[in-house]
Amino acid sequence: MDKQLVNGFLACVRQAGGVVRTQWNDAKEITFKGRIDLVTQTDLAVEKLLLAGLPALLPGSTVLAEESHESLDPGALTWIVDPVDGTTNYAHGLPIVAVSVALWKDGQVALGAVYVPMLEELFWAVRGQGAFLNGTRIGVSTEGNMQNSLIATGFPYSFYTEVDQICLRLRRVLLASQGIRRLGSAAVDLAYTACGRFEGYYETGLKPWDTAAGWLLVEEAGGTVSGLDGDYGLGGHMIVATNGSIHNELLALLRLEGAADCAC
What cofactor does its activity depend on (predicted)? Predict the structure, then answer.
């Protein structure tokens, strides 16, 4: 991929993260899109910056962004944007907040970045060229034992429609692994899986902007990304991302057919 495009892209993402840093201590203007689904003035400001900056980098490209999207289906050349992934964290002053941007080209993610501005961590990847954290190449964990594996997960905004399945999966994974973490940002969970901090991650109910960039990060870092029963596609009900070594075992834990019911 053209180096000038990549450098311009990373500069644009850093600039977007700068908006988060600048507004971090400002009073939060919160609007509720759903009972627990928030949007703040910072989401809107970051998205406005990216809506202007990204198409200028690549003439003919479009933008599919969380706060302004009209469709969940990207075009042939589309930037997929989550301006603030982890808005609830942001509203509560928790620094696990990311700007997540990916370029969807000809049916796959070609370029992606997850920037965690309050921690100054910029994860990025180019298809076929590897994944990086602040310029240093990263790779997934080499751990192959589930008992030694740290697993991340999250809960969908519509958790109440599948709370029993969520609880059962939590119990099964918790008993089999070293532990579970719930950070509140799918983009960060995927980035942390890519760099080996987590051995695996799973979640249901995510949108294209939640997973597009992180999906590429994990694969370019040597990991595996799938759905529960086959390939993962943007907007799929469940994403499962791992270092590859524990992938099949994690999938087996997440499949509930024949599993005994259990209350949380």
Answer: Mg(2+)
Nearest to 117 by CA among 6, 191, 38: 191
Q: Which CATH number does the domain 146-254 belong to among 3.40.190.80, 3.40.50.720, 3.40.440.10, 3.40.50.300?
A: 3.40.190.80
66 annotated ligand-binding residue: yes
pLDDT, tens digit (0-9, with 9 covering 90-100), for 167-212: 999 999 999 999 999 999 999 999 999 999 999 999 999 999 999 9
Give the amino acid at 110.
Answer: A
- 210 a known binding residue? yes
Q: What CATH code is assigned to 3-137?
A: 3.30.540.10
Does 257 show up as a binding residue in the annotation? no
**Cα-to-chain-centroid distance, residue 122:** 13
Residues 188-199 pLDDT 10s: 999 999 999 999
Beta pairing class for 179-181 and 150-153: parallel
Answering whether pTM is above 0.90, one says: yes
